[in-house]
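re: that chain from earlier
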Amino acid sequence: MERETVCSVVVPMYNEEEVISETYKRLKKVMDGTGETYELIFVNDGSRDRSAEIIKELAKNDKNIRLIDFSRNFGHQVAVTAGLDYAVGQAVVIIDADLQDPPEVIPEMMKKWREGYHVVYGKRLKRQGETVFKKATAYLFYRVLGMLTNDSIPKDTGDFRLIDRKVCDAMKKLTEKNRFLRGMISWVGFNQTAVEYVRDERFAGETKYPLKKMLKFAADGIFSFTYKPLKLASYLGFILSISGFLYLLYVLYQRFIAHATVSGWASTIAVNIVFNGITLIILGIIGEYVGRIYEEAKDRPLYIVKETVGFTVDGDKEQN
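^ sequence. v structure.
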């Protein structure tokens, strides 16, 4: 009779052939050191390099390796979701393949888990090897998100964390398409705590989060967890309406009481341009929410699996 799997490690990867072998070595060393049964679930998110092939080769000599190979690129958050769907461990660790989050922190997370915590998230003390722009925008994002969500999502944290089986099962019930996992894990509750660490530079390769993806990720975090932007749009609309009405009263006063020539058409046009710009911003905010409703209404699967390797019943979950 096989022993129960204590820990599943979910590793999403996209074009990580330069680092994935080293990632495997460090993860294996750390997990072997725990003395617990474990599985390493690598999720290939439509990589165009040899990432999947490398994992398949490693799996021939390591029964703890699992591979979920997507039919195309579905995104980092969806790749993590697939790993959670397939994981069988009593604890599930989420860690990126780039080794910026050190696997050596996992035993400390497991220690906290055994103390009774259901979520142990990694909190970054420093971010090595990142640009000033990246650090500044990350700092601003977490503060804005905290302000909009009443600080329900921990600051300076990523997806690197350990979650209990109860949390993993609860996450499977959350089926939204535009996923912001660190917010979703905070939303489900349970006992949560932090483990502090210093985030390293990438071991090799380039970041998979350019500015465009960072903006999309930030939008998912904000629009998926608060409707305060809609309230802001309402407040702005109200303020603009009152301002416009007061300006109209001023124009009428100048024309019929003061008998002065109404001047300043250039400034009036400038004000109109500003007001119209704000109106378009408000429509854009509303459009973001409507677009997300549209995505939910289509109810397409989050991902399509092309192939699985290393699971007991190979290919029993082709999609979710």
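Residues 265-298 form the longest helix (34 residues).
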